[in-house]
Structures are given as C-alpha cells and as structure tokens.
Amino acid sequence: MHVKQLFWIFGAAMWLMSCADRVEVSPLPRLESRGEAVQLLVDEEPFLILGGELWNSTASSPAYMEREGLWDRLQLAGLNTVLTPVYWELIEPREGCFDFSTLDYAIGEARRRDMRLILLWFGSWKNSMSCYAPGWMKQQFGEKYPLVKTKEGRTLEILSPFSEVNMEQDKRAFTAMMEHLKRFDTDRTVIMVQVENEIGMLQSARDYSEAANAAYRSSVPQEVIDYLQRQGANCRPRLYEAWVGQGSPIAGDWETMFGTGIDTEEFFMAYHFAKYVEPIAKAGKEVYPLPMYVNAALNSRGRKAGEYPSAGPLSHLWDLWHIAAPTIDFLAPDIYDPLFPEWIAQYDLPANPLFVPEIQHEPRRENGARVFYAVGRHKALGFSPYAIDDATPEREGYALKEAYTILRSLMPLVMEAQREGRIHGVWFDRNHTEQRLTIGDVPLLCRHDLTLGWSAEASDPAQWSETAALVIELGEGEFLVAGTGVVMTLQPRVSDGTIVGIERIDELDYRDEQLPALRRLNGDEDHQGRHLRIPFGSYGVQRLKVYTYR
Ligand code: DGJ
Q1: Long-range contacts: 344-348, Cβ < 8 Å, 24+?
Q2: Neighbours of 206 (CB within 10 A)
Q3: d(Cα 314, Cα 541) in Å, to the nearest integer?
Q4: Which of 120, 331, 355, 358 best tests ligand 1's pocket when mutated (most atoms within 8 Å of CB)?
Q5: Residue 203 Cβ contacting ligand 1 at under 6 Å
Q6: Buried b vs exposed e over 295-311: b needs ≥16 C-beta within 10 Å?
Q7: How far is it, in rounded angstroms, from Cα 418 to Cα 39?
Q8: What is this structure's pTM?
Q9: In what order do the strands lie in the sheet with 30-34?
Q10: Per-residue model confidence as pLDDT tens digits over 184-206
C-alpha cells in the first residue's frame, strides 16, 4: 500500500475516533445528597423509582416476555422502572464467553417505552444459594470453587466467600457486564445495579470451611477496630453492645472482641461477605460507575442467624457492611413481613437512604398505599413490589397504577419537598388507626378512613387493608395530601388557643401532570368543613388551605 494511502486511512480513523468521542451520551445516573435527602439523579433530574421486580425467571426468555406481552403490561401498570435479573449462567455460558442478548433485549424494550431498568446481578449468591453460577463452575464446585460448610461439616451449595478464586470469577463476569453496559447503554436506561441477591449463610450462622475457621480464629481486622473506636455509640447497637460487653478491647480474634455465640459469628460473616462483594462492586464501578446496592432477606419472625440468611446486608450489621464494602451505596430491605413501617424505618439511616427493592405482591392492594408512606415518611428513593408480572387490574395492578400515576405527577414537588424536609407520611392498618402530625403550627389528627364507619367494609375487620398518605407543606397554612383511605381533622392550636379550620379544599387532577384543580370539595366531601377525606378504596390528591378563628 502506498504511504499516502496509509496516511489517509490513518487520518480517517482518527477523525472517526474523534467523532465517536463526541457522540452524545446522557449523564450517568448518580446518587446525590441534596438538602435533607439523598436522591437519585437520572438525566440530572431527581428521580423517584416507581418500580416493580420481575419473577426470577421471566427475563431469561425474550420469547416468553413477548408471548406474555409483558413490556406493554408493565408500562400500563404505571411503572417507570423495572427491576430485572441478569443471570450469570446465561451471560457466561462458557468460561470467558459472554452473551448479553437477554440483557440487550430488556434494555431495548424498556428504552422504547421510556422506562428504566435496575439490574439484579444474580452472581455468586441468589437467596443465599449459588444456583445462578454457570454450569461450568458448578461442575467444579467443592474442588476448584470452594463451598461453605455447616457447623456439622456438611457442604452446602453456597460458594464460600473465603475464596479468592470464587470472587475473581464473579468479579470478571460482573465487570464484563458493566463494560457491556457502558458500550451499549449510552441512553442510561439502566440506572442502578443490585450486586448479588439476598446474600446470607444458611443452616449455620457462619461458614465452617477450613479457610473460614482460620479467619475466625485470627485477629479482627484493624479497620473494624479503628471504626469501633471512632464511631463508638454511633454504631448499630448490637455490634456496639457486644464490643462494650467484652470491655471494648482494641485487639483480638472475633470472640475476644465480641464474645462467644451466633451474634459474633454473624458479625464475622457479614464482614467477610462484604469483603467479597467490595472488589466486585469496585471493579464494576471503575468501568462504569452506576449506583450499586445490596438487598437483604430480613431477620424476621423470631428466627436466629442461620435460620434466616445470616450476615446479609441487614440493618443491625450496617457498620460491618459499610466498613468492608464502602463502594456499596446502601443496604436495602426485601419486605415479606407484616409491620412494614417498622422494617423500613431500620433502613432509613443517616448514611443509608431507603429503597424498597422488593415487597410482597399484595392481592389486597396494600402496596398502592405503602408507597406513599415510604416516600413521605422516609424520603424513599423508590419502591418495587416483587412478582410485578402479576400486577393485573384484578389484583394489585389498579392500586399500584393509581399510586404511581399520582407520584409521577407529583414527582417534582415530592423531590423538592424531600430535600427541604417539607414532606411527611402517615400509615394505618386495623391496629394502627390514628396518628398525629404537627406541621408548622398546624396540628392534624390523621386516621384510617374506616374509623368513620361510613363504608361498608368498616364493620368487617378482614376488610381493613392498609391505607396511607403523604403530606407536603406547600406554604403558610397550605398542604397537599396524596394517598388513599385517610381522613384528617384539624386540631386546636395549643400555642395561642386559636381554632384551625378548613378555608378550602381543592381536588387536584393527578392524571394531568400540571395538577390542575378539578373540584372544589365542600359539603359532603369535607363533611361540611370538618375534615379532609380520601375515601377507602379510592386514590386522590387534595390541596388544603387552613385558617384560624377564635
Ligand atoms: C426474595 C428474593 O430476593 C426474590 O428473588 C424471590 O426469590 C422472592 N424472595 C420470592 O418470594
């Protein structure tokens, strides 16, 4: 080839490369601490995740999703985000050979509908087990790839976190996925990644493999000791009290530092699970820095560590996860238990924003209520019922769709109010029927709508499903209330003895994102000025203006 031709080809290649550099890419989604809230920014705008998580196997098959018309249904259900697994066994069917076709399909379908994705990395662990490890790895489980052992010496189908080899394989695959995203997802359809799924040790509180036993007998890493000394009573109580109970030692093995028993075994294991996750998340973020979190199966129903997945990203283990996996942005609870408010409160911590990545799909439509409480009371980043494929109008679909439609219209207002600390939440069930809020100097008594006894369901305890609302302070004496099944009465102001009354209530049309006033509510709708009400079974947004009289 002539030198001139070579020059020309070289010049053209350089020009093409410089064009590639200029290709418009959207800014990366990121978490940012803004005012009183940590918020997720998507396309630089604060974004509330109105999500739903697919059944585990749905995303393994584009053909299945097509057959079910699933993407259209998800869009119709009002979601702006779908939580979808990425399966290690499918993306790396042969060692080192990657196939991202299922992921690319999901990105394409979500993008077409202006929906976002959160990827769930089903890597080394899925609900504690290692069922999603590729077949070529499974064939060498227990040999090349060490597994955990119970106290009795039984081997479980769980990759041991004490193996560098296991971690390296996971890291390689995870990084390949992030590299692929970086290249393929320039529109930023994927906004966040969950690293692994419900990590935890089962049957025993800790791994009893040889490597694990050696680590258990060795000194607690200095970073843990430094942290305890630095943070003291700011640590989560169980960890702190165990340490203080031992006389606050500044050196020693896990039992010297925290005592004997399954609590210590769980501390030890949490640290090492997190130590395994950290290099994976770090390598992934180095390639493509999306927000990353880990989700937890809860330590509920009075079960002991090992009966529930021990040492997962649980609230009482927050410090250990934070020390060993600082790259992980937050820990998140999967809610499959009653008393949802108590569980989510445990994950709203100073350095841990609340996100509910999974919550049981509720035939009684309770999630349509719960999302208001999570967003209002705990400034949640978002909400996502599990098995969202089932959200049909007959089941939860209607409730969730109404709730999500409201929150979509309210999103800018909600995000601003979260930052400025002007948002509140109330939640009710059969046994928790009222809650008092004082906003500014306006005292509100909020109740479950069925306490009025006006609805047919009121007399049947089985019908009392959960209700909730969020309340935003709009200005002096002006509030916005959004939710379902609540009634609010104004209370006398203690400070100056004046009585607070309803000047006016406007129902807002939440199907229009401009939120125009639809009806002036008075008469029967506000009980002749006595209360604000969103009746049980319906959804609404109302703007309340109060006044005072003597
Ligand atoms: C929690 C897990 O994270 C999900 O993947 C799924 O297995 C559900 N449990 C099933 O209830």
Answers
A1: 344/374, 344/378, 344/380, 345/378, 346/315, 346/316, 347/315, 348/378, 348/379, 348/380
A2: 28
A3: 35
A4: 358
A5: no
A6: bbbbbeeeeebbebbbb
A7: 9
A8: 0.94
A9: 30-34, 37-42, 45-47
A10: 999 999 999 999 999 999 999 99
Q: Are 174 and 25 in contact (CB under 8 A)?
A: no
Percentage of the chain modeled with pLDDT above 70? 95
Q: Is the CB of 197 under 6 A from ligand 1?
A: yes
Mutate which of 121, 197, 298, 355 for ligand 1? The one with the most ligand atoms within 8 Å of its CB, which is 197
60, two tokens: 């393994």
Give the distance (Å) from ligand 1 centre to CA of residue 118.
15
Task: Give the DSSP H/E element, type plus range, for residue 212.
Answer: helix 210-217
Concatenated DSSP letters for 299-364? --TTPPBTTB-BTSS-GGGHHHHHHH-TT--EEEEEE-SS-HHHHHHTT-BTTB--EEEEE---TT
Mutate to test the pocket of ligand 1, among 56, 58, 331, 356 (most ligand atoms within 8 A of CB): 56
Residue written as token pair 């500044």? 250
Which of helix, strand or coil describes residue 135? helix
262-287 helix and 164-184 helix, angle to the nearest 10 degrees = 40
Cβ of 198 below 6 Å from ligand 1:
yes
